[in-house]
């Protein structure tokens, strides 16, 4: 990578968006805008990109967006937000708007696939061929890498909407508008508020319902390990990072759920197998930079 290589990234989230400028993967500038409706949000981000590009030509642009989003270049709606409950964003031309006028290669992916890529290159996933990054915050999403590359197919992984085995005695209905008790509807931020009847930040770690939350997340971990053979499962997001006491509970329940079937799931290896993301709250912004580097052919830096 040359000393003048500069990469820009956009992390487009459901409540806020961040424009990032980096030398290599060292962030040198950032600008945050609230995610309101598409036109003002994308225009503000595009203006920041244009300003950076006018000072020094960008080497690559990476866009890490909330989903669902069309990632197949063969589709007419490539780079657009698909049907989403977020008001006004269905059909938003994210990639075309942000990349317009920039004479540099660009790439777009989900925010969680981007974060997984960043963890693979610079965080807790270094040395892993396959991994899954799970964020639990306002929603629940997962990015999956196999062979060091983000997984795409008919769409992209939507593990937040898996409906999994419920723990005995848990009567919580769930809050997902599509599936009620999918994993996002059970443990994401709005679900926890509904489950506890108040801001979950005010709920003590000793509250018994946290045991149900740990069991639900463990069920998700077991499903991911059985279907992807991930070498590492990394957790990020405001909910996951604010309740570290859950991680040992989750690990113990994962072992129970696997029931001895996978020989790499044992007490001696669980601390390495299921852990917090190494980049913390920087995984998302650096995910956009990782995508920019991949677009420019410099993804091994």
**CA-atom Rg in angstroms:** 19 Å
Give helix and strand order, one letter per element, not per position: EEEHEHEHEEEHHHEHHHEH
Largest sheet: 5 strands, mixed
Average pLDDT, to the nearest integer?
Answer: 94
Strand content: 15-25%
What is the tally of beta strands? Answer: 10
> What is the 3D shape?
globular
Low-pLDDT stretches are: none
Q: How many helical stretches? A: 10
Strand order of the largest sheet: 3-2-1-4-5
Secondary structure category? alpha/beta
For the record, give the distance between the C-alpha atoms at the N and C termini, rounded to a whole number: 7 Å
Helix residue percentage: 25-40%
What would your notes on this structure say?
This protein is α/β, with parallel strands linked by helices and 301 residues long. The chain has helices at residues 38-55, 94-99, 111-122, 183-187, 189-196, 209-228, 238-242, 246-258, 270-273, 283-295; strands spanning 6-12, 16-23, 26-34, 60-65, 106-110, 131-136, 140-146, 149-150, 233-236, 274-276. A hairpin with a 2-residue loop joins β7 (140-146) and β8 (149-150). Helix content is 35%, strand content 19%. The chain has 10 helices and 10 strands. The model has no long low-confidence stretch (mean pLDDT 94). The chain is globular. A 5-stranded mixed sheet has the order 3-2-1-4-5. A 5-stranded mixed sheet has the order 8-7-6-9-10. α3 packs across α10 and α6 packs across α8 (246-258).
